[in-house]
């Protein structure tokens, strides 16, 4: 049984309805847990004897190709929700309306001071203009395909042994974002029992060969195969969007979330990575 808990924000009810529609359709297509019923305040989902993948398993050659297949299947779905290309920008814009500069963080960190002095609204506008040049297709995306949202079913061999869960961020979005975000998640582990409750190892980011193998399988599963080089270029630039999106998310959640997590450290980590990559891409034009 999944309970929605307390809802807040002007779009809270609409978001719950949208997630329920998405859950129902993915359930019918065998991409997620079966839906047994909906009631005010929650829903009854199938219990799946399974475990979440570990971060190091994302780089497993066999599992990586299985994830590519699942992503391709997801990207080809026709879901009756808003199909505009605005979800990424609208979501960040809504978050950036929060009084970020008023967050009561300890201001003894030079990196944090530098980040908070940056106009992140301007960064989002620059990024939107920059990524629009790539013309990345808008498809139905998971938008948070990290190891914790991929279940490995017990005693169920084959591609169907993987099940995608947690549709909170599912929306029509740029293909490049979904793939890039997944690749970035190879480097993060959210099972650290010690504060800040995550760890990062940039050395685990997929090599070009690993990215190509993933994209080959992804492209083969799509109705119309596309140039691997074209998709690879999209991904390299949409990594920026992943870092900025989750960096802003972390800043906002430091004010609102009751979950014990190093939101400040995570925001610094993601936004530092954003600015470093931005500088590299600009210099290598």
TrEMBL record:
Domain of life, source organism: Eukaryota
GO annotation, biological process: phosphatidylethanolamine biosynthetic process
A GO-annotated cellular component: cytoplasm
Keywords: Lipid biosynthesis, Lipid metabolism, Phospholipid biosynthesis, Phospholipid metabolism
Pfam name, any one: Choline_kinase
Annotated GO MF terms: choline kinase activity; ethanolamine kinase activity
SUPFAM superfamilies linked: Protein kinase-like (PK-like) (SSF56112)
Family: Belongs to the choline/ethanolamine kinase family.
This protein's name: Choline kinase alpha
Naturally occurring in which organism (per UniProt): Aphis gossypii
